[in-house]
Amino acid sequence: MKFSFKIFVSVILALVITLSVGSYLLVSSFFHSSLEKEIASAEKENTLFQYSLEIAYSTNEDFNLSNLSAVTETIESITSNHDMGFRFRGETFAQIYSNTDITTPPELLESIVPGQTSLVITPAHIIVQAYALDMDGEMIYVETYKNINDVFVQRQEFYDLFQTLMIFLILINSIIFYIVALLVSRPINKLAKTARQLASGNLEQRADYTGNDEIGMLAVDFNAMADKLETKIEDLEDARRRQDDFIASFAHELKTPLTSVIGYADLLRSRELPREQVFDAASYIFKEGKRLESLSFKLLDLIILKKQELDARWLDIATLVNESCGYAIPIESVEIQPARVLVDVDLFKTLLVNLLDNANKAIAEGGTISIAGKIEKDGYHLTIADTGIGMPKEELSKITDAFYMIDKSRTRKSGGAGLGLSLSQQIASLHGAQLLFASAPGAGTSATIIFKEFREESEDEA
Amino acid sequence: MKRSFTYVWLSILVFAVCIACIFAPSYLLKSKDSAIVGQISRKEMASAGNTLDNKLTILEKIDLLLNRDTNLMDLTQGKLYNKETVLEVFHQQIERLKELGIIPGQEYAFTSYDLSAYYLISMDNPTESLIIWELFLNTDDYSAYFTLEEESGLIMMFNLSFPYNNPFAVSSSAGSSMWAEYLGVALRQREMVEDGASKALEESLDEQFNSREIFYYTQGDKTIPFYIFLSRGQYTISPS
After folding, report:
1. Binary contact (A56, B75; C-beta < 8 A)
2. How distant is the Cα of B158 from the closest Cα of chain A, in angstroms?
3. Which residues of B touch A167 (CB under 8 A)?
4. By the 8 A CB rule, do A401 and A242 touch?
5. Could you say which of B48, B71, B76 has the minimum Cβ distance to residue A50?
């Protein structure tokens, strides 16, 4: 159900019920107030009539029960101002005198108790009051009548007016509220339309409502959410693309050595080869096998790293660097400013070895490697720099991707699979450190590990 | 399909509620009439005799006399006096007024008179009522009108008319204080009223006897203004 229809229905129902209850209470209250006034007035008039009758009876010698008609004029003068009907009855309830043809309900006559006035409103909306008067030992029954039909007629007229007014108000307000409901729901509909477009894949779609109300705030939040969603989806797509690339690269890395291995193996089993060629083929199979083994180990490392918890300790950087350089890599200079960092020894050594190995490969055709450790403003900088072949600047952002190789033939020739720097990047991240590269073709490459947390004193001092 | 059905169903429901809200209160009001119509209630009634012993002060009675929201009924006789016995009361009260110097000390002959009795009852509060007597005297020398309240036996107002060349020496200030003494009330203040009619009258009559003044008489919480109109041929004391 449309939101505008819900608003419309709710408001109309609220209006109708409020008007109905309000008019009922108003008319009812007015009616009861008028009725009470009329009853009070009738009671007063009845009392006036009773007193006047008693005075007239006690002061007029001609006024007696056997000759009531003789004083009719006097009695009429009592009631002339009040439009009051009255009736006298004898002890047997037989009528003695009456100026009206209104009948009294029999149950009212039966309810008369001496000293009390009985009152009833008849279905014809006439207040009838009856009481007994003792006149010189003889009991007469007096009934007075007051027509209050006007009160009931007025109530009906009021309510008829309210009904007409209600119908008019409902019709007018239905139109007004329908338009208002449409106007109120329009920005919501636009927002919903935008959400649908977003859901259907149009990630650039944004809500264009700019009001300062709640819907405006919702539109702003919605757009912010859409921005984040777009970024997230782009990231996911990027990750998926990387994963595809990873699988493709991995398949390719497997296929290349395996093709050669299968070829050489087939050659060995299908022909009789001279011993020298057999040795070459076996050597090739061994070398490619080792490369595949190395590849599988590094892949294993990558997978394990994602799940591994660090066994970190505060260690002296210089010691770590010295232990990592134990391999046969020519280092021209090592300048380490003493400091300790919180690292997992094995993982950190892997990181250093990877970086030194890359530097070593880079200087294969000539160059030097230097290691420097320095305390800077943003942390401890450990830099491994070479003066090797270097690489173009645009390649720097890709070199930490798995299986990425700038010169594939050269990398494979040197036994690499393009996983070393990816592994190094992850190890640095695990330690809360940054791994940054700077390079230029022919000028060499520098890899800097930045530790944000470090201690300046050396391990010996501690 | 289901959605359209919901709209139709809800529209019918709203329409039904509207119709119910428009017409139900009228039905409800009429149905509640059964609690009003045909129900007998009883109330204690008082006797008219009690209303004449209502202990109203003289000023309260005069106030009731001035009240327009009263019912007046002609009586052939009073509750205490009849037309013969009330004349003696009038005679006594006129003598008392003469003694106090409120009216000229001449003889007021009851040779030609007209006497009426009325029962006056408040419509607002029927327990307040009184019987008044009005006496008109008419001779060649003067005409007079007195209103007397039966229970207290006091004259509440009067008017005397004399021929033009028959002045009498009563000043309004003296009359006002004596009138307070007669009624047994206090004279609070005096206010001179001048209007076009009295001014015109002043010009044509002797200054000594031309005045129209309002005096306030107090008894308990009640204050009633009386005007005393005095000219060569007219003398009236009446509540205003």
Report:
1. yes
2. 25
3. 22
4. yes
5. B48
- Using a CB–CB cutoff of 8 Å, tell me whether B12 touches chain A: no
SS3 B240: coil
Give residues 120 to 149 of B whose Cβ lies within 8 Å of A.
Answer: 121, 123-124, 126, 129, 131
Q: What is the pLDDT of residues A134-167, one digit of tens each?
A: 877 788 899 999 999 999 999 999 889 988 999 9
Helices A3-59, A72-79: axis angle to 10 degrees equals 150
Rounded Cα–Cα distance for residues B155 and B114 (Å): 16
Q: What share of residues in chain A are helix, strand, coil (percent, to 5)?
A: 55, 15, 25
Alpha-carbon distance A186 to A209, whole Å?
10
Contacts of B14 in chain A (CB under 8 A): 9, 12-13
Q: How far apart are CA B211 and CA B193, in angstroms?
A: 8
Rg (CA), chain B: 30
Convert the pLDDT of each residue in A410-459 to its tens digit.
Answer: 565 555 667 778 778 888 888 889 999 998 888 889 999 999 888 886 44
Residues of chain B found within 8 Å of residue A19, distances taken between Cβ atoms: 21
Residue of B nearest to A54 (CA): B48
The SS3 call for residue B133 is: strand
Reported as a pLDDT band with limits 50, 70 and 90, residue B206 is: very low
Smallest CA–CA distance from B2 into chain A, residue: A1
Question: pLDDT per residue over A272-281, tens digit each?
Answer: 888 888 888 8
Matching residue, tokens 């935008």: A194
What is the token pair recorded at A134?
């003792």
Burial B84-101 (b: 16+ CB within 10 A, else e): eebbebbeebbeebeeee
Beta strands in A61-169 (DSSP E): 85-89, 95-98, 116-121, 126-135, 138-147
Give the span between the Cα atoms of A211 and A217, in whole angstroms.
8
Beta bridge partners of A449: A382, A435
- In DSSP notation, B24-50 reads HHHHHHHHHGGGTBT--EEEE---HHH
Q: How far is CA B237 from the centre of its chain?
A: 15
| Helical axes A3-59 vs A149-199, angle rounded to 10° | 170
In Å, what is the CA distance from A398 to each residue of A327, B199, B209?
A: 27, 123, 132
Q: What is the DSSP letter of B153?
A: T
Contact A146, A84 (CB under 8 A): yes
